[in-house]
Amino acid sequence: MHFSQTHLPTDEISGESACGQEDDRNGQWYVAKVKPGLESQVIEVLAHRNVNAFLPRIPARPKIGPGGRVTEPLFPGYVFTQFDLTTNQWIEARSAPGVQYILPKSMAPLSIDPQLVAEIRCRCESRLDAGWKPAFSKGDFVLVEHGPFSGLQGVFDGSLSSRGRVRVLLDLVGRQTPVELDGYTIRPTSKRPLIASAFRRSA
User: Fold this and answer.
1) What's the pTM?
2) Which domain holds residue 176?
């Protein structure tokens, strides 16, 4: 996995960042490959060892029932860590339980641009403030999988809140009716709703 501004999605990195600079007094920034699901544990261990580390997190898709995740890693299986290669911090970071290696795997660690870390941090904070939003565009065809409207098809009409509420146009009583739902109750579908098909034929 390559962490460079040219390899990150354009919606994750702003061209003109309003974020501050990362403090480089603790050394350069590197990327650690960690065992899946142990990202948070690695962060805690590194903090206990006085090694600065950063786990980019974004809002997670809401889950049905208690215990649903609130956030999730932006880059699952990776954490950013900051240390000076000339000190014992390098050994502390590399030997932390859950850390598999420091990128790249087959050679000495390569540092990354601290401004990239600053921009990722800023973008994650912005995403967390905004909350989770379904990955749909207005007009997408969706299928309701949970709740009283389960099994009905509709058209995504927009996000309503940072808590994941959305508006969907469902085929009810012979016409498209706007209904508010939780975003996790719908999924994309390529099958066109019956009412939408009728509208297209009559247009």
Assistant:
1) 0.62
2) 141-202
